[in-house]
Specification:
The protein is of the alpha+beta class. It has a single domain, classed as Aspartate Aminotransferase, domain 1 (Alpha-Beta Complex). The termini are far apart.
């Protein structure tokens, strides 16, 4: 979670017992659906828009971290590189 919190616009509390990260992406200035698209197309990392879990999830994306530490570290590195897409983006809200 520490590495995800270093991604510009991401805020991720430590999960309580599950292997999912629930990341607040409001600071990206982009809708969750667009963040998920950028992550998939530019980083090869899949995330689910939080709105899939209810209206209160619209400023969130969910990642599964049921993988090896090496794979997770590589994914976060790719997310960091893809984050250039939203750095400096105007706030959408």
């Amino acid at each position: 979670m520490r590495e995800l919190n270093q991604v510009p616009g991401f805020r991720c509390p430590h999960p309580d017992g599950a292997f999912y990260a629930w990341v607040n992406i409001r600071g990206t200035g982009m809708p969750a659906e667009e963040v998920c698209r950028v992550l998939l197309e530019e980083a090869g990392v899949a995330a689910i828009p939080g709105a899939a879990f209810g209206p209160s999830g619209r400023d969130f994306v969910r990642f599964s971290f049921a993988s090896s530490n090496a794979t997770l570290h590589e994914a976060v590195e790719r997310i960091q590189k893809a984050s250039i897409s939203w750095q400096g983006a105007p706030a959408s809200r």
